[in-house]
Design a protein that fits this description.
The chain is an alpha+beta fold. It contains 9 helices and 27 strands. The strands form 7 sheets. Strands 12, 14, 15, 17, 20, 22 and 23 form a 7-stranded antiparallel beta sheet that branches. The protein has a 6-stranded parallel beta sheet with strand order 4-3-2-11-10-9. Strands 13-16-21-18-19 form a 5-stranded antiparallel beta sheet, with no helix packed on it. The protein starts with a strand and ends with a strand.
Length: 512
């Protein structure tokens, strides 16, 4: 292999391809996009595509006159919606005929939008009877094109529809009474609840467990028999209850039970919600509300994914985190010598000891995000080690104080503790810190835990075999290193291509 040094940055397709990310892109992660104010074009799609796999616009077709990245490996999928009973079936069928992709990752047809909400707050304001009357046409389109049918998306509302207020349980129960042959594959919900714990409840308890006052409590089984029958029938046919799509979510309840008062607080709740949604087997997909808003990123509710509602806009701070944060890829195990981006954890602490994800603050680094381990915070990574023995852990961190640091195997607990040491301060600069940990061979999950009293910022880490046992701090070390048979792009992604740009000892090179 002939290696030539080059001091000119040459743009290569590998630098923008999300296919080479160490973690696979999440098939769950989606985006709401208001095409009435800005049709979605290739420029914003390319910025979202590293982490977002699908979007919808509350309509039957994309609106941009010319767009090439919808439905491609380097772009995102479009998911159509029948907003209410008056949806344009002709346009939907024409679009699906021209763009049918049986192998698409997100072959959904979304049902009616918030039928238990009034028109003036964005709902389609449909009684269960109106929805049941219109549903056969929706079901037929899904059947004709082999799409998975998603139920009408309900929200928690105090609005009157048809002269009464409908809770999600009540609306679904009456709908399934009127339409028992619905053909529905997934439930759908929206949630603007401020707090991570509330969305966790919606995603795992409200419909799916026997705890508290959820659907399957004794009283609710008697109260909502048609909904329970639908759920039980689906369970009998498929071996599990119908999964859900959370097709709108962000913290947007104002000052209810406390105020999400800044971009940082919105990001902190978002990352915890995404973690729960990715980890839940009962959640098939979710979509952030929303990609393009009329408010600036610094305006309430601080949910804008882009800096402005214009085609050339860059991702906002929240948008960078949503796009690049972990996909919680359970199939990915890191091997010795392989760089692990700190953001790509498989699990993390939440609530008071939350691991905080933000844009990487290291000047000149192309790693997109960093993680802040607050006191008591931890993140977990899946590794595959060839044999029992000592391994050197290299952390690329920034800290202002010495901090106690632990590693646990599998879960917190004295029996699982593998390392208890002190990470030396880096005096507020980014630096490599190394330590040695004795680990068994095989696939395993390791929890990296800040036991100190001050924060540690980390953007990458690496395990290496044949550890020396000598701990050191090296402020001049580079976070990206070239290892045998493993090459990295400028933003830290692993590639196998013999013709691309890589980082070697801090220099940009071309491998031919």
């Amino acid at each position: 292999m002939n290696i030539k040094f080059c001091f000119i940055v040459i743009i290569s397709l590998v630098l923008t391809s999300h296919a080479a990310l160490a973690q696979q892109r999440s098939v769950k992660r989606g985006m709401c996009w208001d095409e009435s104010t800005q049709p979605l074009t290739d420029a914003p799609i390319s910025k979202m595509a590293p982490g977002v796999s699908w979007y919808y616009n509350w309509g039957q077709t994309p609106q941009a006159a010319s767009v090439t990245l919808i439905g491609t490996a380097d772009g995102i999928d479009f998911v159509p919606m029948c907003w209410n009973g008056a949806f344009n079936e002709t346009a939907l069928r024409e679009y699906l005929t021209l763009h049918a992709q049986p192998s698409t990752l997100n072959p959904y047809l979304l049902g009616f939008n918030e039928p238990n909400l009034a028109w003036n707050v964005g709902g389609s304001q449909m009684t269960p009877q109106q929805a049941a009357d219109a549903w056969p046409a929706v079901r037929q389109v899904a059947q004709d094109f082999g799409l998975q049918l998603v139920a009408p998306a309900l929200n928690f509302s105090g609005d009157q529809v048809g002269g009464r207020v409908w809770s999600p349980f009540e609306w679904y129960d009456e709908f399934f009474r009127l339409c028992p042959d619905s053909g529905i594959d997934f439930l759908a919900f929206h949630s603007y609840m401020n707090w991570y714990s509330a969305v966790s409840w919606v995603a795992s308890e409200y419909f799916y467990t026997d705890a508290n006052d959820n659907l399957f409590s004794a009283s609710n089984r008697a109260k909502y028999p048609h909904l329970v029958q639908f759920m039980d029938d689906y369970l009998a046919a498929h071996g599990h209850y119908p999964r859900m799509l959370l097709t709108e979510f962000c913290s947007g309840e104002g000052n209810k039970d406390g105020y999400v008062s800044s971009v940082d607080s919105q990001i902190d709740q978002m990352t915890q919600k995404v973690q729960k949604l990715e980890q839940s087997d009962m959640v098939a997909g979710y979509a952030w509300f929303m990609g393009n808003t009329s408010q600036a990123p610094s305006q309430y509710p601080y949910n804008s994914v882009f800096q402005s509602n214009t085609p050339a806009a860059e991702l906002s701070e929240l948008g960078r985190v949503y796009v690049y944060m972990s996909s919680f890829d359970a199939e990915k195990y890191y091997t010795p010598g392989e760089q692990i981006l700190a953001k790509d954890y498989i699990d993390a602490s939440t609530d008071g000891q939350q691991a905080k994800v933000r844009s990487n603050s290291e000047s000149g680094s192309s790693i997109p995000l960093q993680v802040e381990w607050q006191s008591g915070a931890w993140t977990a990574y899946q590794v595959s080690l060839p044999e029992d023995g000592d391994y050197t852990l290299t952390l690329h961190i920034k800290s202002t104080a010495d901090n106690r640091f632990r590693i646990y195997q599998g879960a917190l607990g004295a029996a699982n503790k593998k390392l208890d040491t002190t990470l030396a301060s880096t005096a507020g600069v980014w630096a490599d810190v190394t330590t040695t940990v004795t680990l068994p061979g095989g696939q395993q999950t390791l929890l990296l835990y800040n036991m100190g009293t001050s924060s540690i910022f980390v953007n990458s880490l690496r395990f290496d075999a044949a550890a020396t046992g000598i701990a050191n701090v090296n402020p001049n070390a580079q976070p990206s290193t070239l290892h045998a048979q493993q090459y990295y792009t400028l933003d830290g992604r692993i590639i196998n291509s013999p013709s691309s740009i890589v980082i070697h000892n801090g220099k940009k090179i071309i491998i031919h």
